[in-house]
Design brief:
By secondary structure, the protein is of the alpha/beta class. About 40% of the residues lie in helices and about 20% in strands.
Length: about 325
């Protein structure tokens, strides 16, 4: 195993953190102002030094290996603590307003419950938060950070992948009482269905159910019926109330599953190819306030991703 100076290890770990945050060598290079090849070289040197593979190089995307996940869990809090200490030493540099735009469901279900932690760590940063759907175009200058659900492609902007999206059916345990067992997709014929009309931009209200069933090999099930809503969190509240079976997004439903208010009858989830991403203009992270909020949200997302792995087992992929 080749030796490495402390400064070299520090550089490689910083590159690793950027690559793990974006799950992309190209985007890590853009953040660090180095080439994609330089990122790849630094990661390879770190892997050789550790004797462990840190990333799986898959077609069109990266995944952390178990070793990469363990390294991230160890290194990320340490660097976060260093960044916090530096921020405190810089004092007024972290004072002021950061404008955050987020999807309404993600904001209400995922971000808002975590915001007290940001306030406690960085009391001098003031957030101006706006809820906007994906149908509202991203315009440079109207936000410092935006949280959007897409395939990770944002022309004219840079982005950081927060969470990969997976979907699966959920319902209240009360709904299952007095009905045939919900143990297969065909049994859905005996249950009312709930639809999130905004789940797939430009598609029919039933598109999410149809995409899910096609992905698990049950396209024959009739889903063009039931109740329709234009917000995911409203759809989930109706599912909790026992109105029907809904399609849930893994990142937005962990608490409801843990508490037993909702159950996942099929235990099979499907990757949609969509990701929750932090979107920002080139150069935005040069502002220490924006960089601090960006890093804090990304850190929270990495912790949430680890927690969510106990949810329904991933099923096959699904094309956009």
């Amino acid at each position: 195993m080749a030796s490495a100076a402390p400064s070299q290890v520090h550089t490689r770990l910083r590159v690793f953190l950027a690559a793990a945050r974006h799950l992309s060598f190209t985007r890590a290079g853009e953040e660090l102002h180095i080439t994609t090849g330089a990122v790849s070289q630094q990661i390879k040197l770190l892997e050789d030094w550790l004797g462990q593979r840190l990333f799986r190089r898959l077609p069109r995307r990266l995944e952390l290996t178990d070793a990469g996940s363990r390294l991230l869990a160890a290194v990320d809090p340490a660097y976060a603590a260093v960044d916090l200490a530096i921020g405190r030493l810089r004092g007024g540099a972290l004072s002021g307003v950061v404008r955050v735009r987020a999807l309404p469901s993600f904001l209400a279900t995922w971000l808002v419950p975590r915001l007290p932690g940001l306030m406690q760590r960085f009391p001098q940063i003031e957030l101006k938060v706006e809820a906007e759907d994906s149908t509202y175009s991203l315009r440079d200058g109207e936000f410092d950070l935006a949280i959007d659900l897409n395939d990770g492609t944002y022309p004219g902007f840079q982005s950081t992948v927060l969470l990969e999206e997976e979907i699966f059916p959920v319902c209240s345990p009360l709904l299952l009482q007095g009905r045939p067992p919900l143990d297969s997709p065909d049994a859905l014929d005996h249950y009312p269905l709930l639809h999130d009309m905004t789940a797939w931009r430009g598609s029919q209200p039933y598109a999410e159910w149809e995409r899910y069933l096609k992905a698990i090999g049950a396209p024959q099930v009739e889903v063009r019926r039931g109740y329709m809503f234009n917000r995911n969190h409203i759809t989930m509240q109706c599912a909790i109330a026992g109105m029907g079976v809904a399609i849930a997004r893994r990142t937005l439903i962990t608490d409801e599953l843990d508490s037993g208010r909702l159950v996942a009858p099929f235990r099979q989830s499907v990757r949609t190819g969509k990701r929750y991403c932090l979107v920002y203009s080139a150069g935005a992270l040069a502002d220490p306030r924006v960089a601090t909020v960006h890093d804090w949200i990304a850190h929270e997302a990495r912790g949430a991703d680890v927690d969510a792995r106990s949810a329904p087992h991933p099923g096959p992929g699904m094309d956009d």
